[in-house]
Amino acid sequence: PLHSKPQAVVTFPGELVSSLSDLELAESYLLRFGYATEVEVEARTGSKHVSLAKALRRMQKQLGLEETGELDASTLEAMRAPRCGVPDVGS
Amino acid sequence: FLTFEGDLKWDHMDLTYRVINYSPDLDHSVIDDAFKRAFKVWSDVTPLTFTQIYSGEADIMIMFGSQEHGDGYPFDGKDGLLAHAFPPGQGIQGDAHFDDDEFWTLGTGIVVKTRHGNANGAECHFPFIFEGHSYSRCTTEGRTDGLPWCATTASYDRDKKYGFCPSELLYTMGGNSDGSPCVFPFIFEGTSYDSCTTDGRSDGYRWCATTANFDQDKKYGFCPNRDTAVIGGNSQGDPCVFPFTFLGQSYSSCTSEGRQDGKLWCATTSNYDTDKKWGFCPDRGYSIFLVAAHEFGHSLGLDHSSVREALMYPMYSYIQDFQLHPDDIQGIQYLYGRGSGPEPTAPVPMPTEEPQPTEAGSTSTTEEEEETPEPTAEPVPVDPSRDACMENNFDAITEINGELHFFKDGKYWTHSSFWKSGIQGAFSVADTWPGLPAVIDAAFQDLLTKRVFFFAGQKFWVFSGKSMLGPRGIEKLGIGKGAGRISGALQRGRGKVLLFSGENYWRLDVKVQRVDKGYPRATDDVFTGVPLDARNVFLYQDKYHFCRGSFYWRMTPRYQVDRVGYVKYDILQCP
């Protein structure tokens, strides 16, 4: 199952390659689905990481994930999973 | 469950819906049927009724669209956001929108519904045999008019049943031509076109003229997607062209060459190296029925649930035999009441001839089976001489009480990714589960009652803590004598577990301890791409793992193999 010869990797035109870093992905996800508000995200850049951890914990709780408050593998995987566009929190 | 702020709900029970446009991925009738079944999910448990109307303003307006589609909440291309809907109310409230950059199916791959021919609109059967050759796509072989067709049974040579596949040469959708087929070439803005085009449109839908001159006659229609239509890339909807050249090599089927994510793609011209036109090949796609049932839940006033198995859970996962979860039923009945639907049937009593457990314990099955007490954590002696990392394979692998258990020749090791404590053991099977044989074939834990089922040869045992039931013959479960070694199990939720043996699997109803009707089924039909002679099959971190030799194939709940690796290095994390 594992390829022996090195694989040529091609960049395909028009491919929507997500250039978001994990942190940017997390922020946009938490914002889009209502787990964080603009202010909380701004606060994070003011070295208040508490707000991101709080929002992550809120998301992990709602989605039934392990509540670590960290951007761990299963949380990132959940953020990339196909889903409904309706926010989880708020209007 | 959750409802929207203020318990938004409809002020009348007889609701109407209207499908404004259709995805080219599926035949109209397949989409209409899926939406009808999706509404029935809710009308079955409430007094609500749903009527499709074909003009004017309906309570629930349904549309397909891509990216920004008119409501200020844009979609995001393939995957990611699949759809959204608005809570009950006037105007856009209650409406449901579906992202047409997704590949819409019934959840298990492309649905190619035929027209005309002699099969009454049946779906294509892939592969099919024609003149001794096997076809896994529509073909124009045997015809001079270039119309793609397929057989609707496994062998055209034998059954002579066929139909014509979706193509712009057969019909168009929407537009102003009552479904007439495209006319090629046609003139548009002075240019001649000999295939469907997205020119002149901003929504990416492929269209064509249904007369030779659009500039003059203004007659047009939208092109249905052919069975080899690509998804995304830079040629949405165009058919693959086989063979095509890529990096100097010729390909006559979809390939994952050139990619690191393993996704299958193809070129939509004969030479990718020169033309750079490509797209993804049809995958299993998303079930329009399941997504629609979820979105209609929003349209009726339900918000997202945090119960993973609930329909209103926000993340998509394909379920084969869908049943509304109690959490969803409580939510919708909180808003609209029960309605005249069937009363919930009483639980089927456990088979009486089951021997009573040797120890005093619960013998009657209550409405909610009592959860078996955790086995008291008596210290179990460890044999440090046996190292799991030295084993080439294992008799059985399964997760028990949150820890992966690796069984081999009467010993077992545990590994917990949660406690980061690495591999524990080797422990003795006989110490923990007295009465079990040294070598077992498979095991699984019933998530509801925490009982552990063990299989060895043609027998099985059921442990509730230390108390044992069995051995009993697997034929008591309804598994035929011909079935060989049970190789593993996958818990499916709602008291169902899939048992694998050879190239087949059965679905066990754990409560009544019988396999459901309609089984066994061929593993390859659903779990495509995994070894059919897997030695172990188990559920771990919500993904299906199939092991053969020292390798494992990991499959997502959407039945896509997303990793192949080493059991020892990737799962056991041996140095």
Structure description:
The complex is a heterodimer of chains A (91) and B (575). With 91 residues, chain A is mostly helical. Chain A is 44% helix and 2% strand. Chain A contains 4 helices and 1 strand; from the N terminus they run H-H-H-H-E. In chain A, helix 2 packs across helix 3. The longest helix of chain A has 13 residues, at 50-62. Chain A is globular and about 40 Å long. The N and C termini of chain A lie far apart (47 Å). Chain B is an alpha+beta fold. Helices cover 11% and strands 27% of the residues of chain B. In chain B, strand 33 and strand 34 (543-548) form a beta hairpin. In chain B, helix 1 (28-43) crosses helix 5. The two termini of chain B are 45 Å apart. Strand 1 of chain A pairs parallel with strand 4 (81-85) of chain B, so a sheet runs across the interface.
| Main sheet summary of chain B | 5 strands, mixed
Helix content estimate of chain A = 40-55%
Mean pLDDT across residues of chain A: 80
Q: What pattern of helices and strands is seen along the backbone of chain A? A: HHHHE
The helix fraction of chain B, in percent, is: 10-25%
Structural class of chain A: mainly alpha
Strand order of the largest sheet of chain B: 2-1-3-5-4
